């Protein structure tokens, strides 16, 4: 009986170690990676201050990992709430 329980324990521990190795070595976020440059170029295409818009959009995109559809001013909270809700120190919208 002791041999069977030891075998089960070793099998269980091996399985746990294997699952931990797979979890820690699997790449995260690569499938959902966004091209911030292209997304922000379109987002800022109608902006009156395109360089400032691109800089702010790029920062927001890097932090949030998403950019709402449409051009500057179109805040789609459902698609990218992080982007839509980010504010400056003055409480103004940071992301164009």
From TrEMBL:
Protein origin, superkingdom: Eukaryota
Q: Would you identify the family this protein belongs to, as annotated? A: Belongs to the GASA family.
| InterPro entries according to UniProt | GASA (IPR003854)
Cite the Pfam families for this sequence: GASA
Entry protein name: Uncharacterized protein
PANTHER family tied to this protein: EXTENSIN, PROLINE-RICH PROTEIN (PTHR23201), OS05G0432200 PROTEIN (PTHR23201:SF12)
What keyword terms does UniProt attach to this protein? Signal
- Point out the signal peptide segment: 1-31
């Amino acid at each position: 009986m002791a041999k069977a329980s030891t075998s089960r324990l070793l099998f269980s521990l091996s399985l746990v170690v294997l699952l931990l190795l797979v979890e820690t070595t699997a790449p995260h976020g690569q499938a959902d990676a966004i091209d911030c440059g292209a997304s922000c170029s379109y987002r800022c295409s109608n902006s009156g201050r395109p360089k400032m818009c691109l800089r702010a959009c790029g920062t927001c995109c890097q932090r949030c990992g998403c950019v709402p559809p449409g051009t500057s001013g179109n805040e789609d909270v459902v698609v990218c709430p992080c982007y839509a809700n980010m504010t400056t120190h003055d409480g103004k919208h940071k992301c164009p």
